[in-house]
Amino acid sequence: GHEISCHGWRWETHAGMDADTERDIIAAEMEAARATGTALALGLVHLNEAEPIAADGPEAVAAAETALAERIASAVPDSRVERFGELTYGVFFHGPIPDFDAWAMQLRDSLTLAAAPDAPTVSIGIAQSDTGYAEADEVLRDADKRAIYDRYGEQGLRGQPGGGAAGFDFADAI
């Protein structure tokens, strides 16, 4: 059970976080990375056994979230951690690109390989960026551009034909 996939400072909990709040948090992290000239990565950690835990009621979910938050805090104590949804946390990394791989492996190994045998399994997805902060920040803060991106992807923002489902165009596949 564990998986990790990779794509190109403090604790805060936002129960029932809405999309705008999540975007604001990510935009603030992007601004901090831009200001310090560091790379930015976001790891999303999700507890795999969500359905059975949720079926056991709100107390079980709260206990599982507390345990997951403690595991993440122990794994990467200098990273900002945000609750992004039920049994899902976002973990931010700021630092030089060469340090990114070590951070990602520390997060993965601590939550998977070094986990207690009876600890629930997690899925971890990590996105990392070292450029493009200004453009991404502009899209996050501009509702019209965000709507175009959500519908047509980067192609839509550039006024190119195609797009659809997060920028995927079947013509690009053939």
Shape: globular
In the predicted model, the low-confidence regions spanning at least 5 consecutive residues are 1-15, 163-174
β-sheet strand percentage:
15-25%
Structural class: alpha/beta
Helix content: 40-55%
Instruction: Please provide the ordered H/E string of secondary-structure elements.
Output: EEHEHHEEHEHHH
- Provide a count of the helices: 7
Question: What's the story with the biggest beta sheet?
Answer: 6 strands, mixed
Mean pLDDT: 75
Strand order of the largest sheet: 1-6-3-5-4-2
- Report the C-alpha radius of gyration, rounded: 18 Å
Distance between the termini: 35 Å
The total of beta strands comes to: 6
Kindly describe this structure:
The relative contact order is 0.19. The chain is globular. It has a 6-stranded mixed beta sheet, sandwiched between helices. The protein is α/β, with parallel strands linked by helices. The protein has helices at residues 19-36, 50-55, 58-75, 97-111, 133-141, 143-157, 170-173, and strands at residues 3-7, 11-12, 39-47, 80-85, 88-95, 122-129. The longest helix is centred in the N-terminal third of the chain and has 18 residues, at 19-36. It contains 7 helices and 6 strands. The chain starts with a strand and ends with a helix. β4 and β5 form a beta hairpin.
